[in-house]
UniProtKB/TrEMBL annotation:
<dbReference type="GO" id="GO:0016740">
    <property type="term" value="F:transferase activity"/>
</dbReference>
<dbReference type="Pfam" id="PF14602">
    <property type="entry name" value="Hexapep_2"/>
</dbReference>
<protein>
    <recommendedName>
        <fullName>Carrier domain-containing protein</fullName>
    </recommendedName>
</protein>
<dbReference type="InterPro" id="IPR036736">
    <property type="entry name" value="ACP-like_sf"/>
</dbReference>
<dbReference type="InterPro" id="IPR050179">
    <property type="entry name" value="Trans_hexapeptide_repeat"/>
</dbReference>
<dbReference type="InterPro" id="IPR018357">
    <property type="entry name" value="Hexapep_transf_CS"/>
</dbReference>
<keyword id="KW-0808">Transferase</keyword>
<feature type="domain" description="Carrier">
    <location>
        <begin position="1"/>
        <end position="77"/>
    </location>
</feature>
<dbReference type="InterPro" id="IPR001451">
    <property type="entry name" value="Hexapep"/>
</dbReference>
<dbReference type="Pfam" id="PF00132">
    <property type="entry name" value="Hexapep"/>
</dbReference>
<dbReference type="Pfam" id="PF00550">
    <property type="entry name" value="PP-binding"/>
</dbReference>
<dbReference type="InterPro" id="IPR011004">
    <property type="entry name" value="Trimer_LpxA-like_sf"/>
</dbReference>
<keyword id="KW-0677">Repeat</keyword>
<dbReference type="InterPro" id="IPR009081">
    <property type="entry name" value="PP-bd_ACP"/>
</dbReference>
């Protein structure tokens, strides 16, 4: 067996600069190549993106030599996980109360609403939460203690943002859950000062806000990097660092994040395209095809 050129290129790029030069063969062990556990996760992520497969955690744990990875490549693997998403085929619209049926928004006296910030009916903003100037929030949301929503943030309805989550500008769709300590940043080139050496002002940088799709959950302590899009009903595991787009209904974990499975609207992990808890059914489709062009 010979190693594919793409695989050897990926490994060569990941090897530490201090590693001894060596010829890459199927028998080359990951240890000999100087790849530590974090490098192996990076290797798996790059391998998945290049070959369009998801490496099960068990297969990654059992991969000790480059040949082990090469043997995972299926000849017909052409669709990467990032190009596929799940679509619910029997979702029913959920009735919501009309805004006029909801009570007025509650804002705790210690919370801080900036100039022009708007909070919809039925929403509750708890202790020491801070909403920057112009932030707009829909109805029936809950923001826990110490939540920060930066300038330009838009929040839909029925969104729950738990204690100390920090959102420096983002578009948060309906029914999203941000668990405690989530961090969403929007500056792709953060610097304290300009090249002239003076402190940066608002006009010195171009914000790149994150989008979190309807019904998605971001686990505690996860970090979302600028400009990425989280698909509807996706689930980001606690502590993940998400550095690229996540498809709808995807389950991702790790730093940098990896696509490790699919989840139902109810939050249950999907073994196939039917949920074993709630019975919801799904179709897989490629993102660059019309919605009617399903591949499964
Ligand atoms: Zn379900």
């Amino acid at each position: 067996m010979t190693l594919p050129a793409r695989l050897t290129a990926i490994v060569a790029a990941l090897r530490p600069p201090t590693a001894l030069p060596m010829t890459l063969t199927p028998k080359s062990s990951l240890d000999e190549l100087g790849l530590d556990s974090l490098d192996r996760i990076r290797l798996a992520a790059a391998f998945e993106a290049a070959y369009g497969i998801t490496i099960p955690d068990t297969a990654l744990a059992d991969a000790h030599r480059l040949g082990d990875l090469a043997s995972l490549i299926a000849p017909d693997s052409t669709v990467t996980p990032a190009q596929v998403e799940l679509v619910g085929i029997d979702e029913l619209p959920v009735p919501r109360p009309a805004p006029e049926q909801l009570p007025e928004a509650f804002v705790h006296p210690t919370a801080d609403l900036g100039i022009g910030a708007e909070v919809g009916p039925g929403s509750r903003v708890w202790h020491q939460a801070q909403l920057a100037d112009g932030v707009r929030v829909g109805s029936s949301c809950v923001f826990g203690k110490g939540v920060y929503l930066g300038s330009g943030t838009r929040v839909g309805s029925q969104v729950k943002i738990q204690n100390a989550a920090q959102v420096f500008g983002a578009d948060i769709h309906d029914e999203v859950l941000l668990c405690p300590g989530v961090l969403i940043v929007e500056d792709p080139t953060p610097r304290a000062v300009t090249v002239s050496g003076v402190p940066q002002a608002a006009e010195d940088w171009t914000p790149s806000p994150v989008t979190v799709g309807r019904g998605a959950t971001i686990g505690a302590g996860a970090v979302l990097l600028p400009g990425i899009r989280i698909g509807a009903h996706a689930l980001v595991a606690a502590g993940s660092v998400v550095d690229r787009d996540v498809p709808s209904h995807a389950l991702v974990a790790g730093n940098p994040h990896r696509h490790v499975g699919w989840v139902c609207r109810c939050g249950w992990r999907l073994p196939g395209t039917t949920c074993t808890r709630c019975g919801a059914r799904y179709l897989r489709r490629t993102l660059d095809q019309p919605a009617t062009n399903y591949i499964v």
